[in-house]
Amino acid sequence: MITKICLYSSKYKFLFLFIVAILFLIPKVKGQTGEVRGTIYDKSTGEPLVYTHVVLLGKGLGGLSDMNGIYTISKIPEGTYTLECNSLGYDTFKTTVTVKSGKLYTINIYLNQVEIGLNEVKIEQNKSQNETRVGLSKIDITTQQIRTLPSVGGEADLAQYLQILPGVVSTGDQGGQLYIRGGSPVQNLVLMDGMPIYNAFHSIGLFSVFDPDIIRNVNVYTGGFDASYGGRISSVMDVTTRDGDQSRFAGNVSISPFVSKLEVEGPFSKFTEENGGSSYLFSVRGSYLGQTAPIFYPYAGSGGLPYDFLDFYSKLTFNAPGGSKFELFGFDFNDNVNLPTTTYGWNSYGLGGKFLLLPSSSSTVIEGHFSYSYYADNETDPDNLPRASSIGGFQTGLDFTYYPGNDLLKYGFEIGGGQTDFTYQNSSNQTLDENSYTTTLSGYVHYNKVIGRLILDPSVRMQFYADLNEFSFEPRMGIKYVLTDKIRLKAGAGIYSQNLFAATSDQDVVNLFYGYLTAPPDLYDVNGNEVASKIEKSWDLIGGIEADVAKNTTLSIEPYYKDFPQLITVNPNKVFDTDPDFITETGQSYGCDFLMTYDKNPYYIWLTYSYSKVTYNDGTETFPPFWDRRNSVNILVAYKFGKKQTWETSARWTYGSGFPFTQTQGFYEQLPFQGQGVNTNYITSNGALGTQYAALDGGRLSDYHRLDVSATKTYTYSKHRILRVVFTVTNVYDRANVFYFDRVNYVRVNQLPIMPSLAFNYAF
Questions:
Q1: Distance between CA atoms of 76 and 314, rounded to whole angstroms?
Q2: Under the phi-then-psi rule, with left for phi > 0, alpha for psi from -120 to 50, and beta for the rest, what region is 485?
Q3: What DSSP letter does each residue of 92-121 carry, written as one string?
């Protein structure tokens, strides 16, 4: 006991000293230079503008606004300058500022919308990011990009756009989850305004829980993310929602055979430069495909498309005139499936808030967040074996950001805790009931330094898993070298950890259930040997090249290697009570991602190719997990035409090589030996149908490919009254892509057939 107390004491002391040390890094405005800082707003709505370019003309000093619309220009020599700001779709702002040494000047910028944007502004913004940030394995997504994609059912959605990103594998139209560079869904960190979302995708696999009309920006890291993110070992999807309109009551309504939606927003107090403002935003979106499919798509299969979901989201925003703000938000998401082989459902809800402070006497931007979120799911298979899971937890933290010149210094700490409940019964009738509590303390430092053509991006995260009494030191590093004005080389490496894993089986006919668990205090390998560390880990190594191969055309190539020295899973082969409930596995993933884009009005072209190989080893055999897809191709082409470009057409073709699956070797009568054990009368007892499986994931399904097309017509009745009519055809040539194979009834069930649809979206 004394040893354990000492261990806890030393861990907490280390974290305390770490927090004290980073507080000393808080910079002061001093020396022979001054600083200009402010927030950039859309003048009509009060919405902060992200990635907006600000520059002091003639001095080569400037930068981009961040996700909160905040820009900072530091290390400015004394003098009088012209400050210029421009953004795609807005007018140009100019003002004169006189800078004195040791002074901090706040200049908030309010931009007016214009009808025609400037392509050169967008090019300059991208150039600034490419030459000051490493941007390893990072892709930014906007609502406009999401709408470019041919949308299944005519409803744009983030889930459909994520499927065309390099390194991302989707398991299908129905029941689809996202697997990123070899990692499973539970290893992907999904955040909405800083709040963890445990399941961001509905069972139909075509829709996420995020209404695209409330999204401000999405940052996706397919690997190599810096130390400001933690608690997951594969990827990050950071979704930021926009604020409600602070000038007028507004909204939009949409309807299609797949989904209907209502979104409304407006001001509590109208936004002004002198007083700030406040607003509300509310969105509800639901699918009734289970009811509409028999009417519009009766040929979709005997079981139809039995998917329904209902999502609610609301947000309150309060803006101070100096740029500080406070937000409150909440959500409630629901999903239900009733397949012939599986009944499945889940519910998720959460409440959170965050604040942003811009102290007038300090150059540091202070951000804080707090939240509680909950998720529960359950599944019933034909064998009636119970599967149920729930996870709930809180999270709170502080972040401090400072921009010295073109550099970035960010540091912070976070406290999280939660509870998981899990019930599972395998085919041997062994039941696992697991309930656990977790507490995690973490701190990080992230520094981006520009040295001529060299960009260094070191960071370190320190995680203490208090319930396991385990500490994880996680250094990470990104490097970029600007070889020429058009070619940039980059590389990175990092260590990651998490105390959360999921219970799935490669032998399931349909993988919908994702039971969440935290590491048990006693953990063993497949041979029954207890392991010292109780957390999942990964080590990333990434290289890459970025090239501006022509005007408006970019190319990115990223080879990667990811090692999983320890993964945790439920023991699928448990037969006796003495067998361990959980075992460890190892794994590795490697491959290469290619991305080429062409973006010049009226054309938009997106080409990706990914090669990947994923293998796991449970101590007895090496096998590919069921998401191991060797080759993936995505081609997206969009074109605008007509007077004022009111027409837009797009086409997307996707290809994926076949997934592995466990084949059926035979069937047998499985006798119930519970109760009497070996004394069971096997002559008179009635057993259930048992399945004899072949080698784990030894087979391969057929290749997947599909062509979707869409045409959109926009009718503008006034500045705020806009009708969009969207006609789409999903799976144009009616490819029979396999969804699953019913082993017992020997029936193949396919993914979505050809499905035309007409959708209407009216904004007011």
A1: 41
A2: alpha
A3: -EEEEEEE-TT-EEE--EEE-B-SS--HHH
**Quick count: other Cβ atoms within 10 Å of Cβ 318?**
17
Each residue's pLDDT tens digit, 577-626: 677 778 889 999 999 999 999 999 999 999 999 999 999 998 888 999 98
Q: Give residue-wise pLDDT tens across range 113-145.
A: 886 544 444 444 555 677 778 889 999 998 888
What residues are paired with 617 via a beta bridge?
Answer: 586, 622
Residue 638's nearest CA partner among 606, 603, 607 is: 603
- CA-based torsion, 242, 244, 247, 251: positive or negative: positive
Compute the average pLDDT of residues 167-188.
85
Residue with tokens 């009766």: 298
589 with 613: CB under 8 angstroms? yes
Task: Give residue-wise pLDDT tens across range 403-448.
Answer: 887 788 999 999 999 999 988 766 556 667 778 889 999 999 999 9
Radius of gyration of the chain (CA): 27
Residues 435 and 420: beta-carbon distance below 8 Å: yes
Q: Which of 541, 648, 644, 566 is nearest to 604 (CA)?
A: 648
Give the Cα separation of 459 and 23 in Å (integer).
Answer: 16
Distance CA 393, CA 389 (A): 14
What the block records as the tokens of 125 is 């913004």
My answer on whether omega of the bond before 602 falls inside 30° of 0, hence cis, is: yes
